[in-house]
Amino acid sequence: MHEHQETDPAQDDIEAVTRAVLTASRLLVAVSARSLATVEETITLPQFRMLVVLSTRGPSKLVVLAEHLGVQPSTAMRMVDRLIAAGLVSRRTNPANRRETVQSLTEEGQRVVRHVTARRRAEITGILRRLDPSQRSALVSALNAFNAAGREPSSGAGDADPLPLGWSDPADDTP
């Protein structure tokens, strides 16, 4: 006779939640990709990520920008060069240290971030409207707990431009 091995209920719960989160992340990636559709001819997702960092953090030195993005400075430099060519980023000499440059969004770069974020917000809102109020409430609680466990800063109700793609400062990742 074949013995049936018991499984730990907590482990089963973690597996079910992991599958649900992976599915939800697939949906959110698809929403993000669709929100970039109108600008994908001009910029890639990593380049948009750079625009988001500049939007939320303000003008940045190249080395700091590379750290926020988790890339090498040479990679960040190539991205900046492409975004400058597209008219979305500007570069100027750092007034505090003339050997450095500071990158910032142009007005067009700011417009692109606002536009893509508004498209993503609208699509997410449409999906959420299909849930009943008790499901939405449970989702808020669950996502707040998930974000806290992942040390992702929350965006308040009044935040005009929360981190649109959720990239936080790696320096904030201290235990």
TrEMBL record:
<keyword id="KW-0238">DNA-binding</keyword>
<dbReference type="InterPro" id="IPR036388">
    <property type="entry name" value="WH-like_DNA-bd_sf"/>
</dbReference>
<dbReference type="GO" id="GO:0003677">
    <property type="term" value="F:DNA binding"/>
</dbReference>
<keyword id="KW-0804">Transcription</keyword>
<feature type="region of interest" description="Disordered">
    <location>
        <begin position="149"/>
        <end position="175"/>
    </location>
</feature>
<dbReference type="GO" id="GO:0003700">
    <property type="term" value="F:DNA-binding transcription factor activity"/>
</dbReference>
<dbReference type="InterPro" id="IPR039422">
    <property type="entry name" value="MarR/SlyA-like"/>
</dbReference>
<dbReference type="Pfam" id="PF01047">
    <property type="entry name" value="MarR"/>
</dbReference>
<dbReference type="InterPro" id="IPR023187">
    <property type="entry name" value="Tscrpt_reg_MarR-type_CS"/>
</dbReference>
<feature type="domain" description="HTH marR-type">
    <location>
        <begin position="14"/>
        <end position="148"/>
    </location>
</feature>
<protein>
    <submittedName>
        <fullName>MarR family transcriptional regulator</fullName>
    </submittedName>
</protein>
<dbReference type="InterPro" id="IPR036390">
    <property type="entry name" value="WH_DNA-bd_sf"/>
</dbReference>
<dbReference type="InterPro" id="IPR000835">
    <property type="entry name" value="HTH_MarR-typ"/>
</dbReference>
<keyword id="KW-0805">Transcription regulation</keyword>
<dbReference type="GO" id="GO:0006950">
    <property type="term" value="P:response to stress"/>
</dbReference>
